[in-house]
Amino acid sequence: MFARKMCPVLLGILMLFSISSLGQSKVVEKKVKPAFRDYFGLPRASVFLHLNKSTYVSGEHMWFKGYVYDRVKGVPFEESINLHVGIYDKDGNELEKHLLSARNGLSIGQIKIDSTFAAGFYYIKGTTSGMRNFKEDDSYVQEFRVLSKVESKKERRNTGKLDVQLLPEGGYLVSGVRATVGVKVLDSSGLGVGGLKGRFTDGSGNIISEFVTNRFGLSKFEFLPNGLMDYKGTLTNVEGDMMNFYPPEIRERGIGMSIKRLPSDRIEVVLSTNPLTKEQMGKASYSLLFHRDGLLKYMMVDFPAGQETVSYVLGPDQLQSGMNIVTLVDDKGNPLLERLLFNDYNVEKGALDIAISFVQGDSVKLSLFNMGRRDSLQFLSASILPAGTKAYSPKKNILSSFLLRPYVKGFIEYPSYYFSETDKEKEEDLDLLLLTQGWSRYDWDAIFNDPPVKEYDYKDGVDLYGKLHSGYMKDRNLIMYQGGKGNPKVIELERGSTEFFIGGNYFEKGDELNFAMMYSDGTLFRPNLFVRLDDGTVTDKVYNVNKENRGTLFSENLETLGINGFIILDNTIELDEAIVVDEKIEKKVFSPHVNANRMTTTTKRTVNTYPLFLDVIRSNGFKVMILPNVGYDRIRISRMRPPNVRPVFYIDDVYQPDFNMLEDIFTEQVESYFIDRSGNGEPGAGGGVIRIYMRKGEYELEANSDMPDFIKYTVPKGFSTAKDFYVPRYASVSDDSFRNYGTVHWEPSIIFNDNGRAYFGFNGLGWKEFEIFIEGMGKDGTLYSTTKTIRLESSK
């Protein structure tokens, strides 16, 4: 059993605890701890997005609050980092991506649900660049639904064909060792089927156990397996059909694990074996690990002579707070058995009292009282919807996202269920879930042999890379002016340098960056350069959507729901949106003289081999000359062989009378090109033809008409600006349509004062009864997830 006094051992930046009254395990100290230090040494964060609803109508905004959590420390992630929030279709393909800044673990944003969203199911995903270092994906994914004027196909769950799985506790069945066996019954869509009766019998037909599945298709039973006997289970599906199922292989040798909960939140761990195994193991010792995220407690396990079973009773303070991965390893460090166990001890779950403090007309003011610790700042967000709403049904909350999801390998049907108004039944259901999940999501072979390598930082801000066409010259500086936001910034360049870098910028999407070269006397002139931004954003997918998207899959049209014309749209705004959509799907139109199949796409190899596009032209058989101190027509291009006729030149299908523009074009700026020395049969192209198509957005610079000495760059993808909440122009705020799908208020920044109180007000829009959905976390790591109904004088 563990000693009561805990002695932390610091390994690098990670706290690993070793507590044992039975001495130290050499394999844990020399193999497991170093492996944990390497595998979990990089900081890991979890993300939760609190959405104001889970069902939207075209014309609304999705309002959300982002929470980023340090799982090792159990507090908000302290570093300021970029939070990438993407929208994905029902197949998991990325549709759009937004960049937000998360400071002290908090971020606020919104996404317009415009006319590009057809009716159906979508996903929102929150992730960070640092998560790309790990094999385990810690991104947050949540499904949401959009209602529109287009009716979607109605789908029904198919429960006819069942998948029955028997999952022994710890992982294996051993002959002669009593076992607890978890039962999982899934329908053809991968969701649990509740209320099914099952029976488990031996080869003679004797009933060993009977069971009934819970709402998620889970159950369990105990039996004593005999390797010489056959066993069979039978189950009746919802149609009344009988089906058979069979247990996994029963091993001749091995160890069995059983964990039982006792009064006062204690647990009993029982390890048992059989005579064959006992004879084989001799005096070998084992170690029982209780760990998560690199945090480790362990105890030595020995089977005394003449004993085939050992048991230990542990108090909740002797386990990890929150999730415990319980692993039995042998004296070489090989994991033999594993099981997940949740320990509620020291998990800071906040409790709130919500009251009405003021009502006047439609104005409502609420008072929130923190019933727990008040010596630390607490940050919450609240969605206020009409009572009886159908628009808020997320399957996850902040507790399930931070305390459960990071450790479970398989699909969890309804994670928030286990952490909403917790009672004895839900605690038992959670333990049943963890029993049937088996081993954790962490692969032991990877822990020992393939630790993560830090390839990506938790990026903070936007990095700007720039390149000048010619080297830096004495007595000249490059300056950057972010239009309307602060003073010009001097960019220091080493003599002869053509590149520059500015990290950690907080550019917003659409910001104008203006660049100029400046002599020592203050004279300005336009530089020849291009710039590139890097905010850590990558195009990605949502995987395993077939399970995430399997709930009650249906989508009625607005007319069926009685909410056709639910929101009054401004025609001007709608027209602007239509133009934006056209730009999103715009395809490049090539000259009738060349089609897309004959274009050459610029690759990284092209860029590395030919930094300037003039080099690409040379490589295609043209002679290129740059005449110094010449203005007009200073660049001369012609065929290598007589007749030395100049080619025709186009940029984005626009004819260029000379080649001077090519002096300022780097190959990185070119998306694709077509070069043909024969002229491709084009009129007037006897000397050949050169067509280039520029990349849009990332490299696009242009002259600034307001500041002629500057060259202007419009930021194509920067930080999204948080807007103040506003209620859409609903056609009506007093009917059942609004009750079901309307939005009353969204409060993203609730902060408690020193007395543990917080206040916020809103327009009740004539309603007298509201549902309030609150999520949040404190600086001390307290997590909040609360739902409450508020009534004013009388129900509407």
How much of the sequence lies in strands comes to 35-45%
Averaged pLDDT: 86
| Number of extended strands | 50
Global shape: globular
Compute the number of helices. Answer: 11
Catalogue the unreliable spans: 1-22, 150-156, 549-559, 571-587
Instruction: Report the helical percentage.
Output: 10-25%
Radius of gyration computed on alpha carbons:
33 Å
Outline the biggest β-sheet: 6 strands, antiparallel
Structural class of the secondary structure composition? mainly beta
Defining key terms:
796 residues, mainly beta, six-stranded antiparallel beta sheet, five-stranded mixed beta sheet, 50 strands, 38% strand, disordered N terminus
Concise summary:
By secondary structure, the protein is mainly beta. Helix content is 11%, strand content 38%. The strands form 14 sheets. Strands 32, 33, 35, 36, 45 and 46 form a six-stranded antiparallel β-sheet that branches.
Helix-strand layout with pairing:
Blueprint: E1 8-11, E2 14-17, H1 26-39, E3 45-51, E4 55-57, E5 61-70, E6 75-76, E7 81-88, E8 94-102, E9 106-112, E10 120-127, E11 140-147, E12 163-168, E13 173-174, E14 179-186, E15 197-202, E16 207-212, E17 218-223, E18 231-236, E19 242-245, E20 250-251, E21 255-261, E22 267-273, H2 275-281, E23 286-292, E24 295-301, E25 309-314, E26 322-329, E27 335-343, E28 352-360, E29 363-370, E30 378-386, H3 398-403, H4 424-437, H5 444-449, E31 462-468, E32 476-482, E33 489-491, E34 499-505, E35 512-519, E36 524-525, E37 529-534, H6 545-548, H7 558-561, H8 571-584, E38 600-601, H9 604-609, H10 613-619, E39 622-626, E40 635-639, E41 648-651, E42 654-655, E43 670-676, E44 689-694, E45 701-703, E46 711-714, H11 736-741, E47 745-751, E48 757-763, E49 769-778, E50 783-791
Parallel strand pairs: 4-11, 13-20, 41-44
Antiparallel strand pairs: 1-2, 3-5, 5-6, 5-9, 7-8, 7-10, 10-11, 12-14, 14-17, 15-16, 15-18, 18-19, 21-22, 22-25, 23-24, 23-26, 26-27, 28-29, 29-48, 30-47, 30-49, 31-34, 31-37, 32-33, 32-35, 35-36, 35-46, 38-43, 39-40, 41-42, 43-44, 45-46, 49-50
